[in-house]
Write a structure and sequence with these properties.
The chain has 296 residues and is α/β, with parallel strands linked by helices. Helices cover 38% and strands 20% of the residues. It contains nine helices and nine strands. It has a seven-stranded mixed sheet with strand order 3-2-1-4-5-9-6, sandwiched between helices. It has a two-stranded antiparallel ribbon with strand order 7-8. Strand 7 and strand 8 form a beta hairpin. Helix 4 runs antiparallel to helix 8, helix 5 packs across helix 7 and helix 6 packs across helix 7. The two termini are 27 Å apart. The relative contact order is 0.18.
Amino acid sequence: MKRQLLVFLIFFFSASAFGQDSLLNYEPKVLLVTAHPDDDALFSATVFKTTKLLGGTVDLALLTNGEGGYTYSTLGNYIYNKELDKEEIGRKFLPGIRKQELMAGGEIVGIRNYFFFDQPDFYYTEDVEETLDKWNNDWVHERMVEILEEGEYDFIFLMLPFDEFHGHHKASAVLGLRAMKELPKEDRPIALQGFIRRGDNPSVSFTQLEGYPDTKVMEGEIFEFDRSQTFGANDRLNYNIISNWVIAEHKSQGTMQLLMQTGEKVVEQYWYNEINGEEGLEKTAEFFEAVNVIEP
């Protein structure tokens, strides 16, 4: 805590004295790895700040084709003039529709490149092994390694693979970490596993996904950004607006709209993977202090 407080004070006075451009001495590069074409909304405020306010870049690697979203596409029928909630129709058209929705939301937060892996979004399961069995892991691994090598990223954002989470989410984190380990240690991005905490509720309990030691997090090292942080005239604005804009683009996914928020406290959490070692903690702390300090 003392270390993070010191970093915060340095950034606070630097921002006051020299302006926002002095917050970081580099332009951060992030690879965001998700399972479905709306999972990026989980990271939306931090992505917005990275690209729009810190001058960084964010690329997105999407594992599935999103076809399994037909279940909640009833209202999307009226937007796209197709019976998307019928499985045979939804599975045919949703991959294309959801990519368009994803890129529309990505334009809002400034996502630069998209890497589509088009693995089957077969059905809901919490079983990571079943998911990995149904995906083309060898090809995914090779392509992910190429992306990481070419991108020279500072950070890789993954989904926190806790027990009750979707098996596709867990698998996307597992595959992202496996690919990252192929890089020499000095070239690896810092791995952070993301989740949302709402209101004053405690976060989920997580140490690692059983059987996957690379997912283990370092105790006590969770970095956060509170979307309800206010700014602007009379402090009437907050960063829930950004996530709401992104969510609104996913019109084929009815339940996504229920995640919109106004004044409720919504905190983006980034759990620090133990695989990073302690040497990445200072850079991560500096990045999130910048994310939390800088304003439009």
